[in-house]
Amino acid sequence: MGEDRGPAALLPAPLARALGFALLALLGAAEWRRMIGSGGALGALAWVAAAVLSGELAGAAGTLPARRRVPAAVLALGLGLLLAALVAGLDPALLVPAHWPALVDGVGRGLETLSGVTLPYQGTDPWPVLTLRLGGALLLVIAAALASWPRRAGRGYPFLALAVLLALVVTPIAALGSSRSLVLGAALAVLTVCFLWLERLPLRPGLGAVALCGLALAGALPLSAAADREGPWFDYRAFTEGLATPASVRFDWDHSYGPLSWNREGRELLRIKTSEPHYWKVENLEDFDGRRWATRGVPAAAGPEPEADLDPGWHSRPGWIGQARITVRGLRSSDFVGAGTTLAVKAGGLHAFSGFSPGTWQAERELHAGDSYDIRFYTPKPIASQVGSATSGANGEQAGERELTLPLTTPLPPLGDSNRARPVVSAQLEMRPFDQRRPPVAHYERRGTSGSGVAALRNSPYWRTWRLAQRLKLGAPTSYAFARRVDAYLHRGFRYDESPAPPRAGQMPLDAFLFDAKAGYCQHYSGAMALLLRMGGVPARVATGFSPGGYRRSQGEWIVRDRDAHSWVEAWFDGIGWVTLDPTPTATPARSLIAAFARSAQNGSRPSGARDTGARGGFSGRRPAGSRRELDPAAPAATPGARGASGGSPWLLPAALAAVVLGLLAGALARRRRLRALGPLSPAERAVADLVRALERAGRPIGPGITLAQLERRLGSARGGGYLAAVRDARYGPSSPPPPPELRRAFRRELAAGLGWRGRVRAWWALPPRLGRHRDDSVERTVRYAR
Questions:
Q1: CA nearest 292: which of 260, 254, 337, 320?
Q2: Which is higher by pLDDT, 649 or 182?
């Protein structure tokens, strides 16, 4: 750390420097921690201690011989950075080489998240907070190393260190502002002066102390004026908009049945950390308005609480309850993404409230890239024997999901004064439960009357759809058997088409899909299945969101992209709840709960896809575009909180780093001893060494027996020969100078002649513009050359 200034100083130089740095570093660390949400000096003491220790080790390297100072300082910096990472809260297992990809990915994700969120960060993803901790602790260690780095002049680079420390203080002010502007400005100015000049303060300060106080006050006033504003120094939110995930995607989940217009660019929308794949639900489409399925516009009759969406015995099946952490990447929505029936959402400081449909949740604002939250959800995973024997709404459960609003082909005349009342153009059909062989009831809201549902169906565009539902239901012993028949029908003569032909004028899209076009995509298949199930008395609805996406094993996350947007069906089974069914003819997820049930119904075993909703493949049909699995052969990634992960001892990396550094130091010391034995080099000898190295790098090495004169005759030319002659004269002449720059340039052009641009680059590397100070084996070979 340099020499002591003697007894006249107020404090010994090493102590003054360490104290000045520690105080300013403590202020910087305390301010930095405000962005984490846990400000204060006590929490920053460990960071500062690691930095001071690293700085003292780097400063102690200045007492070593000159050739050992820099390697020892580098070793101190490396150990300091390692210690800083540990005190910042990094799991030691992530320092194992096998987990470096997870560490890099996590820090990268943390940086991307921090570029688009409000600070202090209040999400549930641990990486943004861990990235902030790492950034603060590592910056302190770098500042300490700069302040104490061994130099010939003694002390290190104090002004560079000061710049790093000021960044620790100023960054939180710019991002969050400060309510203690004058106090902070005065403290920063005083501590800056102490850091730079405390070691020079005399034992009796006198006018020196007054001058330092004046300087501190002068520095405090502009800083406090800049910090004491209604807004921060610069609009960091606007600045970071350019750093966030670009071109976020917004979806309209209501069905349209036109050509598929969803974004299909492969843009990443979500990262979901969970042990099993699921369908990631955004909305339930529970209302059929006569043409399409749409979201419910009013609260459910049973209330918005998740329990209204569950079977009464759901508590007895803890294995059907799951958890997931969801990080938003490129999805723009005020809806929280969930799975099955989402029981709860924990989003840090972001409030979540229930949607109109039980089990769906909305945020108080639109979610942006970087927001993260935890969900707890209930997803039934029944075995074939359970779903095969279950009734469906036998006791009136989910009665609202057996209703349909259908248009009337021939409007009914109004009741009362026909000159003022409008005709009745639609009817609300109430379908009887599957086990009740009674006809449906039609309710005419404008007339306030009820009538025959069959008559209303006959007077609607869906008469043949009703007849198809009754034909498929005929002879089906259970509601599950009926669902299987509907699924089988949708796979006979139908094809997947993202640009289906429009229905003819006056025809309903789903009716045209079922009987005429028989071509469509997930909206057509899910909408038609839900319609047929309701007409058969099975409570059903359409769910929208995303298929499971691709699994990235190295991070243990499901990567959901815009191509994974999907629509499927949920059907109600008593004693179980809402079961996911996917009639789209693909090899993706919940084809399982029909196809897999069908394969395993005979033995009553769990279908291969029932536990994980089928995302592990093995089902018939084609995949919808963009639905895939990304397989990463690496081992599962360690998470910031997963201590003791497999992959080796957590201290393997520090030991390996220490061994590498010690090996480099030993090699450098051996090389220096060998070269010191050669003695000092004169400028002429350095010119010869330059020539030998240049020829080797240019691919023209020379043997040990050749003389400079022979080399001149072999390689010399009108341009290059002058340089070789000058080198020979400088080496053996009485007082000849080294070759001038123009001869050096001419010889470089000769080395590159005929070799193109690569030859020119190689010639510059072989013979730089300036004479080098080579002390290596080429010099040892050079001294053997004779005239």
A1: 254
A2: 182
